[in-house]
Design a protein that fits this description.
The chain has 247 residues and is of the alpha+beta class. The protein is built from six helices and seven strands, in the order E-H-H-E-H-E-E-H-E-H-E-E-H.
């Protein structure tokens, strides 16, 4: 995994800092049929694991706002994107991606069965092209996944409580980046996890989802609902004007 500009490795768990705004050129969007080829090339180029075709079929199985497969798209002219123009503008470039899956959390035998089943988000892939790693893209991808998991997959029957990933044991930059984002690096090394690398071990990084994550998800969902309501309201007003004009 290749997130941006990580600090020195530590096993503590600091409070994650607020994310900085993305540049207007960058858009986080679900992986779709149009972006899948570039997304697949990015994952194949940057990560040491070769994923089967089923992995990429899962990437586009859900292309709605509840998708857990996202890509970061660099659009070369933000003004052109806003105005809907197409003249002399290069094709958008997929510069980063993240893909996750939900897994059930085992219940310790000493504990009673909870009212809601506990789930964790497993980060299968997280990668950003090197020229774009100082722009906050990996952080935005991570934050969007956490918000999506809370918004769409925590309900009356399920509760998403944590997120985790495997990181190559020798990749101190990636391990340090996860620490900066509030993850704890577990002490155990999973030997043989990366068979093509030397050393072959992986470390598990894990983060409990806290109050700040839930508040951020709530605020973002409120902003999204407001935008939808404003769009619906504008459409209704426009239709009413058309009726009067044609009446």
């Amino acid at each position: 995994m290749s997130p941006e500009s990580p600090p020195t490795l530590s096993v503590c768990q600091p409070t994650p800092r607020p994310s900085k705004p993305l540049l207007p050129n960058i858009e986080i969007t679900p992986v779709g049929p149009d972006t899948l080829p570039a997304y697949r090339r990015l994952i194949t180029t940057l990560l040491p694991i070769r994923y089967p075709d089923k992995f990429y079929k899962d990437s586009v199985a859900n292309t709605t706002s509840s998708s857990l497969a996202l890509c970061a798209v660099w659009r070369h002219s933000p003004e052109n994107r806003r105005q809907g123009g197409t003249e002399n503008v290069p094709e958008p470039t997929v510069v980063g991606g993240i893909q996750c899956r939900l897994e059930p959390l085992p219940i310790p035998p000493t504990e009673s069965t909870p009212v809601r089943s506990m789930q964790t988000v497993y980060i299968q892939t997280l990668a950003v092209l090197s020229p774009y790693r100082s722009l906050g893209i990996a952080t935005a991808l991570l934050d969007t996944i956490i918000t999506t998991a809370i918004t769409y997959y925590s309900n009356t029957t399920d509760n998403v409580t944590e997120i985790y990933a495997h990181v190559w044991e020798a990749n101190e930059e990636a391990l340090g980046w996860y620490v900066k984002k509030g993850f704890t690096v577990e002490n155990a090394v999973l030997e043989g996890y990366y068979r093509k690398l030397r050393p072959t071990g992986a470390r598990v990084v894990r983060r409990r989802l806290g109050v700040g994550d839930w508040l951020r998800a709530r605020d973002l969902k409120a902003d999204e609902d407001m935008e939808i309501n404003e769009a619906v309201g504008s459409t209704s007003i426009s239709n009413e004007i058309d009726k009067k004009a044609n009446g």
